[in-house]
Amino acid sequence: MAENQNESYETFFRGIWRDNPVFVQVLGMCPMLAVTNSAINAVAMGMATLFVLVGSSFLVSSFKQWIPKQVRISAFIIIIATFVTVADYTLLALVPKVHKELGAFIPLIVANCMILGRQEAFASRNTVRLAVLDAMGMAGGFMVALFSLGAIREILGNGSLFGVDLFGEHFEPWVIMILPPGGFLTLGLILLFFNWVTQQKDKFIEQVAEAERVASDG
Amino acid sequence: MKQKDPDLLLMHAPLLRQGMTTPGAMRDVIYALTPVTLAALWFFGLGALLVLGASIAGAVLTEWFFALAQKRGESLLDASAILTGLLLGLTLPPGLPIWMAFLGGVVAIGLGKVIWGGLGHNLFNPALLGRAFLLATFPIPMTTWTPLRGSESFFHVSASNLALPFMQAKVDMVSSASPLGLMKFEQEVTPLTNLMFGNTLGSLGETSGVLLLLGGIYLWIRRDLDWRIPVSIMLAVVVFSGCLTLVDAVRFPSPLFSIFSGGLLLGAIYMATDPVTSPLTPRGTWIFGIGIGALVVLIRVFGGLPEGVMYAILLMNAATPLIDRYTQPRIFGR
User: Bridge-partner residues for B167, per DSSP?
Assistant: First the structure.
């Protein structure tokens, strides 16, 4: 049982850090760059993606033995599209303003390769419980990425966070940050930072292993 | 060079050395820019010194930070960061808040050079990349031209220079349009002598055409500069704007006005000739220069902006690897 718990823990947290869909797998770049010009848009997009990913992973994993192998991709897409439609209308009903700003990018969640990728690589081969945990982890990692990008861009580009003014009225906005180039620039710098951290960690692990080997030799 | 055995000197060809080194070439360019820098101080007062100092400080500190992080100190000594900062500073308007100039220096070195792998690996001219970033980020302060110092004391610093970091520039001056803006939006021609000797509005380093040319001649005599690039840029500008003037002399600026106004001379002599980001072959440099000249005229006359030298050079920088590939000389004997 302990091993089982360990496995679910692994499955969940893998998506947030080690296999982060944005920073490590570099998937789902389209919504990542397009809707992160403010923190609220980023979080709304993240929530919609979380809902779609968890729902479709649950269904795909439950129905995996009835989905014929030859048509599995179209079956996955139909399941995903169902949840996307639900998310689309829910956002339209609850937060019409955000829905208007996100525009075409809500229906486009269906084409997010991260979601289809999780169905193909994980949900269709694992138990329902693990599939849902994996979906939550991956969507969580996606949301972390969306939020960090959206927050940086909104703070620098508008001087506010979630629409709350941070610097007073004399702030000079960095116009580039809320324009598309700002998205590419920020994403590139975050990726740079992420890779640097990973490299430092690998180096540290190597050094520890080396020290241990020397110690056991001596 | 350290030799273990001084009696036996083993060397690769070339054995005949020119004595030209990277730090030497960088220093030459800085010397060539000295008159222009002094003229900027004279025309705009202490504020110009603050802007130039801030952009140089931003560039040098960034270079120093990354040199420290990568444990290679030598890249600081080749003076390239100082040159990048100086060139960037000369393209900035005199009333720019100094924190923006500092940020421009950081971006020029950080995103323009270090990220590509250091000096010699960058695709775009770092100083122009820094300026492009600033122009896209702060469009209004970057196009606000403060008037010349005139009878004001040298030590008078405009309040907009001293805006706090992240804060707006306080507008205390009557700003007006640069000669190119006047030409484009009001069809008003600035007298040519003003353009040549520097009493016009504009960026710090672009006001005095004659001093820029003098520096260029110094660099050409010192063989630090490929004469084909500035010559081909100016030729292309003269030919294209000459054709347009023949069509309509009121709407389109004359060739001489096009050469001496805006950042054309600064860009053509000091930025486009950057050996890292310009083509290697003589044929390639002609294509490069003509491309820049044509783009400058196109952007100035038909684009939405009054000035296009920066974008023209950056675009042709991007085309440089392609130009190099298609102008490779035939290998002898094949």
Answer: A171
Cis before B14? omega within 30: yes
Domain ranges (residues) in chain A = 2-217
Q: Are A161 and A149 in contact (CB under 8 A)?
A: no
Among A70-74, A179-183, B70-74, B83-87, where is mean pLDDT lowest? B70-74
- Taking 3-state DSSP, the helix, strand and coil percentages for chain B, each rounded to the nearest 5, stand at 60, 0, 40
Which of B111, B136, B167 comes nearest A172 by C-beta?
B167
Distance from CA of B137 to the nearest CA of A (A): 5
Q: How far is CA A71 from CA A59, A64, A66, A67, A112, in A?
A: 16, 12, 11, 7, 19
Determine the angle formed by the axes of helices B22-44 and B209-221, rounding to 10 degrees.
Answer: 160
Size of interface A-B (CB pairs under 8 A): 30
ipTM over 0.85: no
Does the pTM of the predicted model rise above 0.95? no
The domain spans of chain B are 21-176, 181-324
- Which of A44-58, A160-174, B82-96 is least confident? A160-174
Distances (CA, A) of B179 to B159, B182, B201, B256: 24, 5, 7, 13
